[in-house]
Amino acid sequence: MTPQSAEVVVVGAGPVGLAVAVELRLHGHSVVVVDKQAEGANTSRAAVIHARTLELLEPSGVSKRLVDEGLKLDDFTIRDGDRRLVPVRFSDLPTAYPFTLMLPQSQTEQILLERLQELGGAVLRPYVADGVTQTADGAEVTLNTGDVIKAQYVVAADGMNSTIRDLVGLQMPGDTLQLSFSLVDIRAEGLSADEISLSFSTAGLLVIAPLPDGSFRLVASVDSAPEHPDLAYAQQLITARGPRKNSPKVTEVVWGSRFRIHERVADNYRAGRVLLAGDAAHTHSPAGGQGMNLGLRDAVALADALSAALTLGDEAGLDLYARNSRVEALRVIAVAHRLTRLANLPRPVRPLRNAVLGLAGRLGRTQNNLAKQLAGIPDR
């Protein structure tokens, strides 16, 4: 039976929506999560969790579980084939989590869902939230079944094409870059499982990132990405752009997809009783693995602000969340944009770019600053 009311309705049961719900339950609030999918994600999609995200999730009791299931990596290296241009180490960062954690999004979602269930919460599936109305003291969310859930606040965590955001009239302006990207999870021989490699080869960008089950994630910018990449295609990417020393051989394609990069930020994260979080509020290049991390940081900050509003009647924190989280999104998008543009300079100037990077990459300050930016702790 669909609940008739809750203090907060969260639309979307991806990592961000689940994290908001977990945090609200920890604060003692009633929350209903609705999602249009019949079950959670079963593909890896986002796969990187950074230090600042783990710090913020620690009080909720999920960080240890994430670390236990994930793969801890100390190194992120910008390369040209076998040549190291900019080596970046996380092991010296001032944090309890001096590493990058590789963990498929499906596992992150499962850990968050289990924690929500432990706290007495659940996800209603499959329900489409296709209506929202607001009053001075609350909001009502209408589902495709005709059921209506009354709440004091609504969180839109329903992705880049957010229905809730559109219904309340919030805009998310920005650009779609004219770049096509392939994402391929593979099994292979001869690849290093000790680092995330960002290859700035003359042939084009290639990210190689190991995953906990022994597979590897490839992300490549290409002229035209296939919808279903096969083994020969994945092998060609590695041969043309990856390391040569161990003659890596692709043995299996586990999963593949394609996408374009959208750089967009909502003009406002709040419309009365409705708050945006995650991809409903911002979307950008995957360079540096920042997308899900930014969304999870949204989730913690928003849950704290909602709890203050519900408990004390003080909505100042909601406006502060909307303002500060948007500023943070703009900063992260700027970093990801620069990395993406740098990786996709015109082919004739790529050798010069790599020569300059090789010189800059020798400086400890360059390495440390990049490590802090990626980890989400640039000011420490």
Concise synopsis of the structure shown:
The protein is an alpha+beta fold.
Structure description:
- The chain has helices spanning 15-26, 51-57, 63-69, 105-118, 163-167, 231-241, 291-312, 316-343, 350-360, 364-375, and strands at residues 8-11, 31-34, 48-49, 71-73, 75-80, 83-89, 100-102, 123-124, 129-135, 138-143, 148-151, 153-156, 174-189, 195-201, 204-210, 216-222, 249-265, 270-271, 274-276, 282-283.
- With 380 residues, it is of the alpha+beta class.
- The strands form 4 sheets. Strands 6-5-14-15-16-13-17-20 form an 8-stranded mixed beta sheet.
- Strand 9 (129-135) and strand 10 (138-143) form a beta hairpin.
- The radius of gyration is 21 Å and the shape is elongated.
Q: What is the H-and-E element order?
A: EHEEHHEEEEHEEEEEHEEEEHEEEEHHHH
Helical/strand content category: alpha+beta
The whole-angstrom Rg is 21 Å
> Distance between termini?
49 Å
Helix content: 25-40%
Strand content: 25-35%
**What is the overall silhouette?**
elongated
Q: Spans with pLDDT under 50 lasting ≥5 residues?
A: none
Number of helices: 10
Name the strands of the widest sheet in spatial order. 6-5-14-15-16-13-17-20
> How can the largest sheet be summarized?
8 strands, mixed
Key terms:
single chain, 380 residues, alpha+beta, eight-stranded mixed β-sheet, 10 helices, 34% helix
